Amino acid sequence: MKPTPKPSFPPIPVILLTGFLGSGKTTLLNRLLADGVKTAVVINEFGAEPVDQDLLQRQDTPLTVLSGGCLCCQVKGALAPTLKNLRMAWDAAADKPFERVVIETSGVASPEPILDTLLRERWLAGRYRLQAVLTTLAIPAALDQLDRFPEAAAQVAWADRLLLTHADLADAGQQTALAGRLQQLAPATPSDLLRPDAATPSDLCSGNARRFRLLHANAQPTHEFRSLSLRLTQAPAWTQLEAVLLALLAGHPELLRIKGVVYLAGRTEPVAIQAAGQRLYPPAALPPRHEGDLYGRLVFIVSGTTDALAADLATAFGSGADIRAS
Ligand SMILES: Nc1nc2c(ncn2[C@@H]2O[C@H](COP(=O)(O)OP(=O)(O)OP(=O)(O)O)[C@@H](O)[C@H]2O)c(=O)[nH]1
């Protein structure tokens, strides 16, 4: 067999950012990018309408969005070519465009197939070095998610570090119960509280990934998750949209996540719409978008079938609503 030629540059560190839907991955990504290290970002979104790119505070970051499925299954095949292209561009550039890569998985991805690509694809394994798997967990919702979804448990099992978020919304009982569960699931994995009002731990990216991982051959999870994407043709008033979204959350226990970028009546800039774990967050102002990209969009991720939700969305948003399933 012909030997694989040795790469002429050292491997580029990769941070794999994972965690269940709405647990704070993009929020953490923004905090990581603020450290000034030049970073290429690969974002995987489950919904067909990508949203996360608009939630990044640094818009000058080299960014690839792989949407419409999970990196662990539907779009797994897209990861290797993406990383190959990034590396080849890096090799060819005199002024290196980035010093590390951060991959943000979708909230329903199991990390194992992604690790399989990174660690077992020979070309990639020689050119990238997995630095750490960071897993975010939203304290108030995490126990329920660990009970219900094997993907959430897998995200904990493969983590090099656990980052506990939404501590400001959690009571002491939830914190203690989660600590107990993590002690069972991942007793050797360090965990940190990631408070929105406190500095990001400075050593977050300096740890080393564990040296040995026992990956199953051809691990292929089967998901029960589906998504609906909705394009808004009009700019609703916030009170009107809020009432609709609260009613959908209350009426659809299968609805796990809502996120989107929406234009509201009377405002020129778009806002980020976020809901997770039955909680609807206040809309957050976003910078203006580029011309030609002025429609609002919302993504709904459910566990199970989307039929009932699709019917209610059509009723709530009218016959002009453009709803797509994926
Ligand atoms: N109160 C509070 N809100 C938080 C915290 N961390 C994140 N959020 C909010 O939680 C919502 C979801 O956060 P994201 O960072 O988008 O979560 P995500 O894991 O990237 O979501 P998906 O990519 O959809 O899985 C946003 O409205 C955040 O502002 C936290 O520690 N406390």
TrEMBL record:
SUPFAM superfamilies associated with the record: Hypothetical protein YjiA, C-terminal domain (SSF90002), P-loop containing nucleoside triphosphate hydrolases (SSF52540)
Record-linked InterPro entries: CobW-likC_sf (IPR036627), CobW-like_C (IPR011629), CobW/HypB/UreG_nucleotide-bd (IPR003495), P-loop_NTPase (IPR027417), Zinc-reg_GTPase_activator (IPR051316)
GO MF terms, alphabetically ordered: hydrolase activity; nucleotide binding
A cellular component annotation (GO) from this entry: cytoplasm
Domain CobW C-terminal intervals: 225-317
Reactions catalysed, as given in the entry: GTP + H2O = GDP + phosphate + H(+)
Keyword set, alphabetical order: Chaperone, Hydrolase, Nucleotide-binding
Gene3D superfamilies reported for this sequence: CobW-like, C-terminal domain, P-loop containing nucleotide triphosphate hydrolases
Pfam family, one: cobW
CDD domains: CobW-like
Record-stated family: Belongs to the SIMIBI class G3E GTPase family. ZNG1 subfamily.
Entry function: Zinc chaperone that directly transfers zinc cofactor to target proteins, thereby activating them. Zinc is transferred from the CXCC motif in the GTPase domain to the zinc binding site in target proteins in a process requiring GTP hydrolysis.
Record's protein name: Cobalamin biosynthesis protein P47K
Organism: Methylomonas koyamae
